[in-house]
C-alpha cells in the first residue's frame, strides 16, 4: 500500500481539535498531538487522509478500530474519546500517551526476564479482555505495544481486529462488526509477517489462538533480542513461520528460566490446538 501523508500544520483545526504537532505517521495517515478545545485537554488524533475517505476498505478499517476501542474498557488498552469526520478527514481521538513503543525499547537489546514477564502479563490481560468480548487483535507486534512513563502497558491499533462469531458479545454492535468483517475475502493475509500465526499466513480465519501465537513471538523477541522467524525476504520469513521451529532462546546467549522457554514454545506451536487455549491460561 502506498503511504499517503497528510499535512496538517500546527495551529490548524479539525472539528473541535486544534493541532499542536505531529506524533508520527504510517500507511493509514498521521497521528497528531491535539487539544480538545471543548474539554481543554490534550489528545492523540489519528487522521485518515482524504485520499482514503472514498475507499470503503480503509474507511471500514478505521471505523472498525474506533468501534472496537469503544467496546473495550481496560487499563491496558488505548482509550478512545471521539470519532468523527471534518473537511474530508476522518479522525479518531484517543488518550495521549507519554513514553515509547516496545519496538523502540527493543532497539537497545533484549529485556530481562522480569521485565519481559511484566510486559507480557499486561499484554495478555489486555487481549484476554478483548477475547472476552469476542475480539481478536490479529496484529500484535512491538510497535503496537506502548510502554508509558508510569510503567503501564497499552495495546494499540485494533484496525485489523475481527469479532469471532462463536464468541460474539450479545449486542447488535458486535453483530454489525462481524458483518463488516465478512467483507474480507477468504485467503486474504492480514497482519504483519513474522508475527502472524501460521493460519493467518495461510489466509484462514484466525481465532483467539492466533493472538496467543503472536504473544509468543513477542515474548521470544523480548527475551532473545531477535525475532524467532527470520529470513532474507518476506517469503523466507513466511516459510519459516509455516515449517520451522525457532532456535531455543538460550542459543541467543541470554539466561531465560526454563519455565519461560516452555511457555514460549507452547505459544509458538504451529497447530492452534497445541497452543494454550486462552491468554488467561498463559
Map the helices and strands:
Layout: E1 13-14, E2 17-26, E3 29-36, E4 41-48, H1 50-53, H2 56-71, E5 80-86, E6 89-95, E7 99-101, H3 102-106, H4 113-132, E8 135-136, E9 145-148, E10 153-155, E11 162-163, H5 172-181, H6 198-201, H7 208-224, H8 234-243, H9 258-267
Antiparallel strand pairs: 1-2, 2-3, 3-4, 4-6, 5-6, 7-9, 8-11, 9-10
Structural commentary:
The protein is an alpha+beta fold and 282 residues long. The chain has nine helices and eleven strands. It has helices at 50-53, 56-71, 102-106, 113-132, 172-181, 198-201, 208-224, 234-243, 258-267; strands at residues 13-14, 17-26, 29-36, 41-48, 80-86, 89-95, 99-101, 135-136, 145-148, 153-155, 162-163. The chain has a six-stranded antiparallel beta sheet. It has a three-stranded antiparallel beta sheet with strand order 7-9-10. The chain has a two-stranded antiparallel sheet with strand order 8-11. A hairpin with a 2-residue loop joins strand 2 (17-26) and strand 3. Helix 4 (113-132) packs antiparallel against helix 7 (208-224) and helix 7 (208-224) runs antiparallel to helix 9 (258-267). The protein is globular, with a radius of gyration of 19 Å. Mean pLDDT is 87; it is low at 165-187.
The biggest sheet amounts to: 6 strands, antiparallel
Radius of gyration: 19 Å
Oligomer: single chain
Detail the poorly predicted runs: 165-187
What's the SSE pattern? EEEEHHEEEHHEEEEHHHHH
Mean pLDDT: 87
Q: Please count the beta strands (DSSP E, at least 2 residues each).
A: 11
Q: How many distinct helices?
A: 9
What class, by secondary structure content? alpha+beta
Strand order of the largest sheet: 1-2-3-4-6-5
Query: Which percent bin holds the helix content?
Result: 25-40%
Strand fraction equals 15-25%
Categorize the overall geometry: globular
Distance between the termini: 35 Å
Amino acid at each position: 500500500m502506498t503511504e499517503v501523508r497528510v499535512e496538517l500544520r500546527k495551529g490548524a483545526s479539525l472539528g473541535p481539535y486544534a493541532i499542536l504537532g505531529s506524533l508520527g505517521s504510517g500507511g493509514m495517515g498521521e497521528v497528531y498531538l491535539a487539544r480538545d478545545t471543548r474539554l481543554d485537554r490534550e489528545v492523540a488524533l489519528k487522521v485518515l487522509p482524504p485520499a482514503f475517505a472514498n475507499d470503503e476498505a480503509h474507511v471500514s478499517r478505521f471505523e472498525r478500530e474506533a468501534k472496537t476501542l469503544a467496546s473495550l474498557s481496560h487499563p491496558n488498552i488505548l482509550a478512545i474519546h471521539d470519532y468523527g469526520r471534518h473537511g474530508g478527514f476522518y479522525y479518531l481521538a484517543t488518550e495521549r500517551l507519554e513514553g515509547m513503543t516496545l519496538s523502540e525499547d527493543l532497539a537497545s537489546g533484549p529485556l530481562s526476564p522480569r521485565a519481559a514477564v511484566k510486559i507480557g502479563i499486561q499484554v495478555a490481560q489486555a487481549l484476554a479482555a478483548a477475547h472476552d468480548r469476542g475480539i481478536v487483535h490479529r496484529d500484535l507486534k512491538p510497535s503496537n505495544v506502548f510502554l508509558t512513563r508510569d510503567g503501564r502497558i497499552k495495546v494499540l491499533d485494533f484496525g485489523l481486529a475481527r469479532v469471532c462469531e462463536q464468541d460474539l458479545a450479545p449486542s447488535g454492535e458486535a453483530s454489525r462488526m462481524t458483518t463488516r468483517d465478512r467483507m474480507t475475502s477468504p485467503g486474504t493475509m492480514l497482519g504483519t509477517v513474522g508475527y502472524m500465526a501460521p493460519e493467518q499466513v495461510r489466509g484462514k480465519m484466525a481465532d483467539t489462538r492466533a493472538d496467543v501465537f503472536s504473544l509468543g513471538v513477542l515474548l521470544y523477541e523480548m527475551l532473545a533480542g531477535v525475532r524467532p522467524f527470520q529470513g532474507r525476504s518476506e517469503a523466507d520469513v513466511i516459510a519459516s513461520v509455516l515449517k520451522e521451529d525457532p532456535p531455543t532462546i538460550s542459543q541467543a546467549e541470554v539466561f531465560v528460566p526454563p519455565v519461560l522457554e516452555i511457555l514460549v514454545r507452547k505459544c509458538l506451536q504451529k497447530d492452534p490446538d497445541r497452543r494454550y487455549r486462552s491468554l488467561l491460561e498463559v
